[in-house]
Amino acid sequence: MASGTLNGPAVLVLAFVGFLLGDILLFLLGRHMGWSLLGVLCWLSFNPETCILRSADLFYKRGKIALLIAKFVPGINTMAAPLAGSMKMRFRQFVGLDSAAAVLYVLFYGGVGFLFRDFLAVMIQSIQRAGYVFSDVLIGVTILYVAYRLWLYQKSKIYAVVPRVEVGDLVRRLKSEEKSRVLIVDVRSHGYYDADAKRIQGSIRLEPNHLVEELKTLPRDRDIFLYCT
Q1: How far apart are CA 1 and CA 9, in angstroms?
Q2: 3-state SS string over 183-226?
Q3: CB within 8 Å of 125: residues ≥ 6 apart
Q4: CA–CA–CA angle 95, 97, 100 (5° rounding)
Q5: Contact present, 116 and 2 (Cβ < 8 Å)
Q6: Are 185 and 199 a contacting pair, CB within 8 Å?
Q7: pLDDT in tens, the chain (229 residues)
Q8: Which of 31, 118, 199, 218 has a CA-to-CA distance to 149 between 20 and 30 Å?
Q9: Phi-psi region of 202 (alpha: psi -120 to 50; beta: other; left: phi over 0)
Q10: Contacts for 69-73 with beta carbons within 8 Å, 24 or more apart?
Q11: Rounded Cα–Cα distance for residues 201 and 189 (Å)
């Protein structure tokens, strides 16, 4: 745009529309697919173990206004729209906040590009001259990323053996004389974000983003059952 080869206002509008349409699509998919979509997106991230928790924690602490800053936070920018959809945020409210965020993002980086256009031009020329080196580096990074994903897959196999209990079995225990020994714990990462969120009757809330401190409060003489989203 700064060189005059592109129409500045048109580029900014197209960028804004592209961001908004993409986020609306992810919002709608998040609303209908829920955590299955979030799981896929997190699987593609560099740190799937904390991917959803980091994003949900931002919403938990900042509320819906988190959408305004999510685009500037790597990793969370991809999760914000589908996470808002899974939390049943009102569509009109999402569009309003996401539109404001898209405007801020486009203007900020458009302005940075305009102000540092000469420096960027030199950088692009240097990259073009070193294109063959960049290709080798890209191939190397791709191989390392694939190896990292395989390592994470092997590491996560341990979670496949986490003991589970059927709902019916737990209901029978709650109706038996052992009821006093049973403690049900809600560990959903964003259970309080939605005002309409409900918990199993008699359960207590445990915030998974603060597990170290929260675990200290749990009794040791009861059978503890956890449930998440």
Answers
A1: 9
A2: EEEECCCCCCCCCCCCCCCCCEECCHHHHHHHHCCCCCCCEEEE
A3: none
A4: 105
A5: no
A6: no
A7: 555 565 667 877 888 888 888 888 888 888 877 666 666 666 665 555 556 666 666 666 666 677 777 777 766 677 777 877 877 778 888 888 888 888 888 888 777 766 666 666 666 666 666 666 667 777 888 888 888 878 877 776 666 667 888 888 999 988 888 888 999 998 876 654 455 667 788 888 887 777 788 888 888 889 999 887 6
A8: 31
A9: left
A10: 69/101, 70/101, 71/19, 71/101, 71/102, 71/104, 71/105, 72/105, 72/108
A11: 18
Contact criterion met (CB below 8 Å) for 49 and 39 = no
Quick one: DSSP state of residue 159? G
Alpha carbon distance 12, 48 (integer Å): 33
CA–CA separation, 172 vs 169, rounded Å? 5
Query: Domain residues of the chain, as ranges?
Result: 8-129, 132-162, 164-227
The position carrying tokens 């900020």 is 108
